[in-house]
Amino acid sequence: MTILFADPRVAAVPVHESYEHLVTLGVSFGPARARVRAGLAARLRQAQVALPVGLSLRVVEGHRSAAEQQAIIDRYTAQIRDAYPEATPSQRHSLVSRFVAPLEVAPHVAGAAVDLTLVDSRGVALDMGTPIDATPEESEGRCYLDAPDLSADVRARRALLARVLTGVGLVNYPSEWWHWSYGDRYWALMTGADAAIYGPVVDLDRLDNADRLANADRLADGQWGGWAA
What we know:
Elements: H1 8-11, E1 22-24, E2 35-37, H2 38-50, E3 56-61, H3 66-83, H4 89-97, E4 113-119, H5 136-139, H6 152-166, E5 171-173, E6 176-181, H7 185-191, H8 209-220
Antiparallel strand pairs: 1-2, 3-4, 4-6, 5-6
Helix pairs in contact: 3-4
C-alpha cells in the first residue's frame, strides 16, 4: 500500500537536524544548478557515476522555499477541489498529498529532495512515460513509478533510475517517478531510521556561529552516516 505524505506516521517522525548546509549541484546535473543538502549531493554524485556510459542524471529542482511549496499546494488544491467537488476536507488533503507534500513534512523545503530524470550524451531527456510534474489526473496514473500501463522501454528506464538511486540510499515517492529524497521524514519512515536528519532549511538560519561549528564537528566525526558537508 502506498504511504502518502499526508499519512500521520510521516509527521510523527522526529527530526534530529544535522545542520548540513545547502550546496549547489554541478553542471553535470544540468543547467538548473539545484541546491540540496551536502549529504544528498554526495549520494547523487555516486549515483551519477553508477549509470551506464552515455547516460546522466538531470536534476530540475532541489530545495524550495516554504512560500514556493505553499504556492504549489494552493494551486493543486484548487485543481482537486474542481475535480472532486464531493470530497471531504480530509479526502481532499489526501488527494493533494499524492502530488505535493504538506508544508510541515515537505522534503523539498528541507533541501532533502530532487526532481530528476535521465538524459543521453547530448543532454536530451529520455522518454520516462510522463513529463516531470505530471499530476495523477493529467497522466491517468502513469506518474506512479510502478504504473502498470508503461512500455517496456519506459519501464526499463525507470527501473534503472530506481536501481542507481536506491543503491545510494535514496527513496522514491511512489506517485512521482521523478521525486527522490534522502534524510527527510518520509525517507526515515520508509527506511526505518530513528529520525530524519534534515528539517526545514529555514531553521538553519537561526543558528549562531557556535552552533554551526559544533555541528560541523559532529559531521566530521561521522555521526551522520559519514556524509559530511
